[in-house]
Amino acid sequence: MQDFGADLLRGTVSSIMNIVLIFVLAKPKYSKKVTLGVMMSVFLVNILTSIYFYTINDLTMLAKFDIFLFVGFSIYLKPFVMEGIFQWIFNSFTAINIFFIIVFVSYHLAQFFPYPYYSNTIIRLLLYIVIIGLFLKFVSPFYQQVMENWKMYFLLVISIFLNFMYYIVSADDIQKMLDDKFVPMLLLIIMSSLIYIIIFYLQQKSIANCLLNQEKQHYKDLAYTDKLTGVQNRNGYENFISCNLKENCESVCIGIYDINNLKAINDSFGHEVGDKFISDASRIICKAFRKSAVFRIGGDEFVSVSINVSENEIKSQHKEMIYLLKEYNYKTPYNIDLDIAFGYAFQRAPVSVDKLFVTADRNMYINKTDIKNVKISMS
């Protein structure tokens, strides 16, 4: 009767902690009440079958039956978790592998304490608490990443499970097997633990590298992006020119844009409105010249670089910009129009960027003068 009580206590602890472990590793789909109900149903089935085998005093058959019971529970629990089917299989095999390791370690450590049957239960409980605690505090973020990349580690986890299962299924006496196969089982546990440690380490390094790359990209964006408009700044323009204007460019067109009357806008309505005009001008330029890279290189000055685009396309995009400006000015609540002077220079290979820029800038100032003369003649 004493052995039965010890077995029942150990089985109860194992059943409860296994269920807790599974739902710690997984993401429950439903409310806590539903999840608790599911956990209770699994516990009842598990403990009732365990009681039967304790009654007939057949721990070996219980160990073998638990493997099939585990497969059944995995199928039953799948609708109650958020993971995909293969992620859930990965999760389930990880839980059973941890269970195998805990059973082996607790069984052999208990031999060093008085009342090994009860010591086994206490050690098993402590091992579960330590593993679940470590998982929640340190491993959980990496484990979620592992789950997302389950294809990389799936065969390793299955292989560990199959090795453990071989020892269980082939055993005629589970306790004798644990004693006789101590060395190979210990080596398997050490190897399995190392595999999981390596998996988590690699995932941690992957996350760290990803965060580092994101941080580098963030600072790169700050260095090359104009905060007000969101387009690239002068640094971005120079970097683009050095990286993209290669010898295989068939043609290059540089366009220069300058906002007219920005000082008058700032003086009349304040710098906030002036900034809005700059942002709106940037949006219009980017929309019209969507096949080009657009940069803000000064307070009211923008540049576009078009590679392998025909001169007719540039003229068509310029017409679209004029149309968008008219549409914008028709809706604006201010009595000052948004005018953008534009000049471009087009050249086929070989390309001289400096000459193109000077020519485009000169053409922009010609256009600026023409806009002013038109306005004077209309006033």
UniProtKB/TrEMBL annotation:
Q: Does the keyword Transmembrane apply?
A: yes
Q: Does the keyword Nuclease belong to this entry? A: no
Q: What is this protein called?
A: Diguanylate cyclase
Coiled-coil segments: none
GO MF annotation list: diguanylate cyclase activity
The record ties this protein, via PANTHER family, to: DIGUANYLATE CYCLASE DGCM-RELATED, REGULATORY COMPONENTS OF SENSORY TRANSDUCTION SYSTEM
One Pfam family cited in the UniProt record for this chain: GGDEF
Q: Which UniProt keywords apply?
A: Membrane, Transmembrane, Transmembrane helix
Extract the InterPro entries matched here.
Diguanylate_Cyclase, GGDEF_dom, Nucleotide_cyclase, Rev_trsase/Diguanyl_cyclase
- Species of origin reads Aminipila terrae
Sorted alphabetically, which SMART domains does this protein's record hold? GGDEF (SM00267)
Query: Which superkingdom?
Result: Bacteria
Task: Using the record's annotation, list all stretches that form the GGDEF domain.
Answer: 250-379
Where would you find the membrane-spanning parts of this chain?
Answer: 6-26, 38-56, 62-81, 88-110, 122-140, 152-170, 182-202
